[in-house]
Amino acid sequence: GQSLEQPSEVTAVEGAIVQINCTYQTSGFYGLSWYQQHDGGAPTFLSYNALDGLEETGRFSSFLSRSDSYGYLLLQELQMKDSASYFCAVGGSTLGRLYFGRGTQLTVWP
Amino acid sequence: DARVTQTPRHKVTEMGQEVTMRCQPILGHNTVFWYRQTMMQGLELLAYFRNRAPLDDSGMPKDRFSAEMPDATLATLKIQPSEPRDSAVYFCASGPGGGLSYEQYFGPGTRLTVT
Prior knowledge:
By secondary structure, chain A is mainly β. In chain A, 0% of the residues lie in helices and 56% in strands. In chain A, a hairpin with a 4-residue loop joins strand 7 (60-65) and strand 8 (70-75).
């Protein structure tokens, strides 16, 4: 089976840096994805790591350590609009299925 | 701007009624997913298709839920009969599959309330 653990809530102030961790247990690991979901909206894809290391996309970075079954999403220069839920997900095989964590609610305070 | 579309966006119905939700995946995507999201259970996968063939529907209560893809531009999720515990947001997502299968594009969702 698959299981993912991530914190349920994180808070930070504007301009700060926040890291959202994700640990996973899975068979047949292909990669770790991150999705963002604003209240009342739909999940949207942020990033994907198939190999160990850091992937940077603007203010967001994602890290993966396959040996530790661990990854994180790093959000820099936080803005109010970053307040949302962030989901890690494992999968990415050619079958296409993703297994999602329960999500981390990020609140950014002014 | 390619998007996944879903109808209806909101549905309120009485227990026992049939509910049909529709989804138009992004043209060219070969995988389609149905998810249900609730506060208690989070994002659950109900069923998914690849090239219109059902790959896994083990997440669905078989006695009342059914999912189909009559053609490449339409996916449907039906609940018959509906129950109050089915109240949730139902998302359809599509993906390009293959080497990009980690990237799924979600529709806006159908917010279902069963009274």
